Amino acid sequence: MATERFGHRFSDRYMMAASRLMVAPDDDTYFVIQIPRYALVTDVMLNIRTAYIGGAPSITVGFAGNGETANTAYFITNDIAEPTVAGIKNSIKDTIASNRSKYFSDGSGSITVTVAAGGATTEGTFEVFAQYVLIS
Fold first, then answer.
1. Nearest-5° angle of CA 37, CA 18, CA 99?
2. Residue 95: what pLDDT?
3. Could you give the CA distance from residue 115 to residue 101 in angstroms, rounded to a whole number?
4. What contacts 28, CB < 8 A, 6 or more positions away?
């Protein structure tokens, strides 16, 4: 006979958060969206409004917090970001390099974006969006 192990944690609290518009930012890692404890991040998007021109620019989107080692390219790798092409890029499970979702079960955290202009003659502008649900 099967033993019941039903979960009783539900949520109808979906959130969509947006970072500030990043205009030709310096090379660095930035904390752009705060994520509360018990949030299940279901999707992360990078919206490149103005593409980088020239050079070899790099943009990755990751996370910090949750009592874990930060991973600067957890959600979106540079291959997915394509900083020289304008448009919205979604987090995907593309092999073992990036992931679509993350559960912040052990603590709050942040969505991060890491930027390197890579000698671009014109630096771009972009913003990050994150969709998450609070499970309690």
1. 60
2. 60
3. 21
4. 114, 115
- Provide the Cα torsion 61, 64, 69, 74; round to 10°: -20
Q: Are 123 and 24 in contact (CB under 8 A)?
A: yes
CA–CA gap between residue 91 and residue 42 (Å, rounded): 9
Around Cβ 110, how many Cβ atoms within 10 Å? 19
CA distances to 3, 11, 20, 29, 94 from 59, in Å: 47, 32, 15, 10, 16
Nearest to 63, CA basis, from 95, 34, 96: 34
Given the structure tokens 């990050």, which residue do they identify?
128
Mean pLDDT by 10 residues, the chain (136 residues): 75 89 97 96 96 96 95 93 96 71 94 96 96 90
Distance (Å, whole) CA 21 – CA 46: 11
